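For concreteness, we quote verbatim a single protein encoded this way:
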Amino acid sequence: MYLENIYSPADVKKLSFQELNDLSHEIRASLLQKLSEHGGHFGPNFGMVEATIALHYVFNSPKDKIVYDVSHQSYVHKMLTGRKDAFLHPAEYDHVSGYSEPQESEHDFFVIGHTSTSVSLASGLAKGRDLTGGNENIIAVIGDGSLSGGEAFEGLDYVAELGTNMIIIVNDNQMSIAENHGGLYRNLQLLRETDGQAPCNFFTAMGLDYLYVKDGTNVQALIDAFRKVKDIAHPVAVHINTLKGKGYRLAEQQQERFHYSAPFCLETGSPAVDSGNEEDYGDLTARYLLQEMKKDRTVVGITAGTPTVFGFTPERREEAGRQFVDVGIAEEHAVAMASAIAAGGGKP
């Protein structure tokens, strides 16, 4: 196994392209084994395997600083930065956090557990670097789902003003936890359909340079792209097209179900522990709200990117129709919108 011999990113840099591909298969196999037994964030990590390998092949962590948005897709990063045993040996499964954790490693810079933060954090690291005369690369990794969060827009709006090295990796798997919501995603779709050549481009409109990678799970294509932007003297967005859950058929087909999973059966994908027909508060809430929606057409349920938290499965979202609103990871907007709905006669 190659993975057993990875003690730091320096070991990744020694491998050939074929060996890097073999490493990606070993990583997915290890992730699949651990997550089926232990649970964790599944889909986000499976889609980021090759991109994480390429990041550590091209850049020089921890001098070059990589900041993961939410950081629930940092499992592969941990495996390549001296923490592989927590993914290979059941007795050590709980020795690492499910998120980035500076107390674990010099390769982690923040404790992050919520979304849309990486661009702001990375821009701060870049500003600090410039103030102290450093020359390292600063890299923010952010998913397309996180782009709907207000802080992501605020960070992107500022980054062009830096006028200095900052690299934003946009991991576009066409999903949030559930489906994406918002006008931004029409532009991401247009960029994917035109191989990044569309004149209408959200990132260049924000003042960023832009590079598109059609196959964001091709390690050689990713290495080529990252080499182009390494040590760049201005902010750039590298837009990579990936597949959430890649490498496990059920996760590719059921992307919402496998965003996060408790322990499950590898063959069927069903939960390892049968909870029977026990009700939970999410299920109770959804059934109650659907009942109220049918009686009163002014009742509306609003979520900021987490519909199943209060029981709104895809089937229930369809049943609710326009009386259910997912604003993406836009929590301030959700609260303000709810207050205005109430002011306008609705019942949010």
